[in-house]
Write a structure and sequence with these properties.
The chain starts with 9 loop residues before the first strand and ends with a helix. The strands form four sheets. Strands 1-6-5-4-7-3-2-8-9 form a nine-stranded mixed β-sheet. Strands 10-11-14-12-13 form a five-stranded mixed β-sheet, sandwiched between helices. By secondary structure, the protein is an alpha+beta fold. It has four domains: 232 residues, Histidine kinase-like ATPase, C-terminal domain (Heat Shock Protein 90), CATH 3.30.565.10; 135 residues, Ribosomal Protein S5, domain 2, CATH 3.30.230.80; 92 residues, Rossmann fold; 121 residues, Heat shock protein 90, C-terminal domain (Four Helix Bundle (Hemerythrin (Met), subunit A), Up-down Bundle), CATH 1.20.120.790. The longest helix is centred in the middle third of the chain and has 24 residues. The chain is elongated. The chain has 22 helices and 22 strands. The relative contact order is 0.07. Helices cover 38% and strands 20% of the residues. The structure holds adenosine-5'-triphosphate. Adenosine-5'-triphosphate binds next to helix 2. Molecular chaperone. Has ATPase activity. It is found in: Cytoplasm. InterPro entries: HATPase_C_sf, HATPase_dom, Heat_shock_protein_90_CS, HSP90_C, Hsp90_fam, Hsp90_N, Ribosomal_Su5_D2-typ_SF.
């Protein structure tokens, strides 16, 4: 029963998503039921960290008790397990928001991806974050008693939810008196969970999952009672975890299991990390970094304001969460801890904004992470592939964002190309250069909105014929990457859909002469087409790049590529309007036919232009006229036969 006077208790309904999540949690995560303790301890530890941070300039929040700790108790008779902390606590509004709703970004995507298959869904919930609600895996009633630091005892709040009978979708909130600040969470265990009512079992779980928690986790000491033949509680308390900073220990004394358990806490992740790097840096600035690459992208990765980044400590004292200044945006998936020996203990977010020391820390952390990625790429291709699939598109942002490390980041990029002609992004720029034809000076690429549009682009025809590899870029961010990455290892990057194709030494003299000759022969035709198309084209010329298609559109050397112009337009941005150049393939029968056409010349010219635009991935601004013209030409042809 609740300790609160029921007259003042208020019934409230969970947000619909919470109900769904609770249901899923209980059904999909049952085989992982032990994690509830890790999650509650992790939250308690975060609550202590938050208090420490808020108390930096408001020491009265400690209320005379600065020794932050987490306590675990159990009551075998009442069948309860209680986790309490003397951290920041919550007020009524916070209780309702934090425990009654899900305010996370990515919530919609998460629910959209659920399949009903328990295994798959368990994996998804893990990625989404299990948190407080995991308590309901082992408990059918949960009581939270909490009081925010710094407010009066009478401002305590009790939250309670029973998952039985008709009340499953609702919870109760009531005011209570709570003398000590912080949060106490009592789990009323479900039938069959009695094994958790044991000091030995709970200690085992703490050691297994929460040993690395920095605050002491205390439990009542037990001793063996011969008469009763059982362990009995004493009046003393003892710390049951290591309660020291894992990152401050020497690397060779930390096991992989410990690194992994620590990651799950700092990364708010349910799954294993992909890789980590742990180093103590000495010199002008002294700091320790323990940085992890997660195995999966979190749901809120595309939310550039998402939290959960790097925790900053100063000489092992927690300073702040999500110190975004410590990692560049394009490495926002990195999780972990940086512990500085030089920053002042009273450092604030504002000081951090301007601190030169932070710039040094960030440069050091960035270097470490890029080094770790290089190492993975070189020595563990499988892991690197996993990394690339999850975070490749975020890393690409770095090409524009971090000019100092541009070459390094470029070396980490992976592309699809005409070499394998598959959608898999596996080609490095170095691989490409290694396969360049003799006499080839540039790295060629094509950008398009989809992989198939890139792969089948008419602009590739001459490259395919000559066996020259072309990178196939179809991720949105690629246009941005290419805008900054103009060369790699001394080789310029060149779009196959821009400017004239100058294949340099790859083109033989006779081919060049042939094109020049055709250009001369077709001079009049080019002029007529240009006049016919009027404002739609900048120029009309004979192509070097087509072998099979009759026509294609290209952007002038210094104009914006057409794919980028479309992306900008779709994003509602002004793109400088530049007209394309139409290139015609005089060896194609359609173009030869055009040369002799009199009556339907304008229709032919317009259809060739529109087809080239479609093949290039563009959209017609007047599709109905295109259809009408094509039909008219088909009829004219069949009448002529
Ligand atoms: N012991 C506690 N003391 C103070 N606040 C708490 C405590 N436990 C939970 N909360 C609050 O409730 C919120 C929701 O907790 P929950 O565990 O569901 O998610 P989370 O910790 O924010 O994220 P994640 O599930 O990804 O770890 C927390 O963000 C915190 O604000």
């Amino acid at each position: 029963m609740s300790d609160a006077p029921s007259a003042q208790a208020e019934k409230m309904n969970f947000q619909a998503e919470v109900k769904q999540l609770l249901h899923l949690m209980i059904h999909s995560l049952y085989s992982n039921r032990e994690i509830f303790l890790r999650e509650l301890i992790s939250n308690a530890s975060d609550a202590c960290d938050k208090l420490r941070f808020e108390a930096l300039d408001k020491s009265e929040l400690f209320e005379g008790d600065g020794e932050l700790k987490i306590r675990i108790r159990f009551d075998a008779e009442a069948k309860t397990v209680t986790v309490s902390d003397n951290g920041i606590g919550m007020n009524r509004d916070e209780v309702i928001t934090n425990l009654g709703t899900i305010a996370k970004s990515g919530t919609k995507e998460f629910f959209g991806q659920l399949t009903g298959d328990q295994k798959k869904d368990a994996h998804l919930i893990g990625q989404f974050g299990v948190g407080f609600y995991s308590a309901f895996i082992v408990a059918d009633r949960v009581t939270v008693r909490t009081r925010r630091a710094g407010v009066a005892a009478a401002e305590g709040v009790q939250w309670e939810c029973a998952m039985t009978g008709d009340t499953a979708g609702e919870y109760q909130v009531a005011p209570i008196d709570k003398a000590d600040r912080g949060t106490e969470i009592t789990l009323h265990l479900r039938d069959g969970q009695e094994d958790l009512l044991s000091g030995w079992k709970l200690r085992e779980l703490v050691r297994k999952y929460s040993d690395h928690i920095v605050q002491p986790i205390v439990m009542t000491k037990e001793k063996w009672d011969e008469e009763k033949g059982a362990q009995v509680a004493t009046d003393e308390e003892e710390t049951v975890n290591q309660a020291n900073a894992l990152w401050a220990r020497p690397r060779n004394e930390i096991t992989d299991e410990e690194y992994t358990a620590f990651y799950k806490h700092v990364g708010h992740d349910f799954q294993e990390p992909l890789a980590w790097t742990h180093a103590k840096v000495e010199g002008r600035h002294e700091y320790t970094q323990l940085l992890y690459i997660p195995g999966n992208a979190p749901f809120d990765m595309w939310d550039r304001n998402a939290r959960h980044g790097i925790k900053l400590y100063v000489r092992r004292v927690f300073i702040m969460d999500d110190a975004e200044k410590l990692m560049p945006m394009y490495l926002r998936f990195v999780r972990g801890v940086v512990d500085s020996a030089d920053l002042p203990l009273n450092v604030s977010r504002e000081i951090l904004q301007e601190s030169k020391d932070i710039d040094t820390l960030r440069a050091g952390c960035t270097k470490k992470v890029l080094g770790l990625l290089e190492d993975l790429a070189k020595n563990d291709a499988e892991k690197y592939t996993t990394f690339w699939k999850a975070f490749g598109n975020v890393l690409k942002e770095g090409v524009g964002e971090d000019s100092a490390n541009r070459e390094k980041i470029a070396g980490l990029l992976r592309f699809a190309s005409t070499h394998a002609d598959t959608v898999d992004q596996v080609v490095t720029l170095a691989d490409y250069i290694g396969r360049m034809k003799e006499g080839q000076e540039k790295i060629y690429y094509v950008t398009a909105e989809t992989f198939n549009a890139a792969k089948n682009s008419p602009h590739l025809e001459v490259f395919r014929k000559k066996g020259i590899e072309v990178l196939l870029l179809s991720d949105r961010v690629d246009e941005w990457v290419i805008g900054y990455l103009t060369e790699f290892d001394g080789k310029a990057l060149q779009s196959v859909a821009k400017g004239g194709v100058d294949l340099g030494a790859l083109e033989d003299e006779s081919e060049k002469k042939e094109v020049e000759k055709l250009a001369d022969e077709y001079k009049d035709l080019l002029e007529r087409v240009k006049t016919s198309l009027g404002e739609r084209v900048k120029d009309v010329r004979v192509t070097h790049r087509l072998t099979d298609s009759p026509a294609c559109l290209v952007a002038d050397e210094h104009d914006m590529g057409m794919n980028l112009a479309r992306i900008l337009k779709a994003a509602g941005q002004e793109a400088p309007s530049s007209k394309p150049i139409l290139e015609l393939n005089p060896t194609h029968p359609a173009v030869q036919r055009l040369n002799t056409e009199a009556e339907h010349f304008d229709d032919w010219a317009a259809v060739l232009f529109d087809q080239a635009l479609l093949a290039e991935g563009g959209t017609l601004d007047d599709p109905a006229t295109f259809v009408k013209r094509t039909n008219a030409l088909m009829l004219a042809l069949s009448n002529a036969q």
